[in-house]
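Example 3.2
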Amino acid sequence: MTQIKIATDSSVQLSPDEIAENNITIVPLSLMIDGTVYSDGVTITRTEFMEKMAVAKALPKTSQPPIGAFVDAYDALAGDDVEVLSIHMMESISGTVHSAEQAAQLSKTDVTVIDSEVTDRAMGFQVLTAAKMAAEGKSMAEILARLEEIKQHTKLFLTVPMLDNLVAGGRLNKAVGVIGGLLNIKVVIEVVKGHITIAAKGRGMKTIHKYFDHIYEEMQTFGSIKRIGVSHAGALEGALVVAEKVRGMFPGTEVYIEQTSPIISTHVGPGVVAIMYEYGE
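Structure, written as tokens:
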């Protein structure tokens, strides 16, 4: 009987217990802060990254794992009748999935690589489901079909209270960023089919608060909310407010709250609060 093992990258939002209990292999991204290179989740924690980014001379740089790191990870999972399913963050923010695809061609084991079209806890929904189905003896085809369903039923939003990192990272025109700063412009991002879209923008925090009300209203229109993730970039207080709200709205539904990954923190900056959820019909 074929055994399927699960791999993913360090942008995923999973607890140490979830990783250990489900035998999930994490391949870390690389981070560079003022010339010093770190291995995400190995030589630097997410909290430490936020602290270092706050005093860095320049915007930190993130890079996908080298192909060799993926090959080593896949080969370590190899065995008789073993297949690997490698699930990664959306290609619109990182070339990680392409490094994994190239490594899959070089590995001595059979590897299937997919783009989750999301990241953070939203990607965690897919990774955890895949790991649990693999443990139940489900086939690769069955797992992939279920993950596609999850993709189609997952929403991911990020609030961006400061535009500095979007400008510094080249994702927003500098002139627009300066004007946005002067006018106190706030942005809400939605990830749609793996692409970053602007869901709302306006002056002041009222823009973000108003859009969160819209998100809450939309969540109530679905038949069920299966699981929720609330992540933040150094904004625990704001994240706790969101988590408390959705826990009250959907008692009994899993709500996972944690600091987001360095790649998200780098791209959108401190103060970000993200909410993501899987819904039923």
